[in-house]
Each structure stands twice: as structure tokens, then as C-alpha cells.
Amino acid sequence: MLKKIFEVQLLSNNPDYEELKKCYYHGGEKYKEKLLSTEKFLRLIIKKEVYQINYKRRRRWRRTLRRK
């Protein structure tokens, strides 16, 4: 099943981040290495992870401003 998901995402022009997370979660280190060694997956992962980090920082900052 993971192999099929990975292959579909590999052939896709717009890989789905949630599907890639499934591959990593269920496939462990083997799929982690595959995901990170594929340039288009790596770009997508970095984009999503950086966005999530920045989103959390902005929320924390806004909460801090409201408390003052």
C-alpha cells in the first residue's frame, strides 16, 4: 500500500503533503530517506513545515500582544 501511495505521489505534478506524511508515518526510516532524497518532495515538505512553524510563531506572538 505504501509503495503504491509513494509511486502515485512520485508521478504526480502536485504531490499531496498529507499522503507523504502517511508514507513517512507508516514506512519509517526507509520512506523518510526516499522522501527526503526526492527533490520535489523535499521542496514541498520544507514549504509546509516552514509555514507551520511560522504560523505557530505568529499565533504565539498575537496571544502575547493581547495579554499586555
From TrEMBL:
Protein name: Uncharacterized protein
Organism classification: Bacteria, Bacillati, Bacillota, Bacilli, Lactobacillales
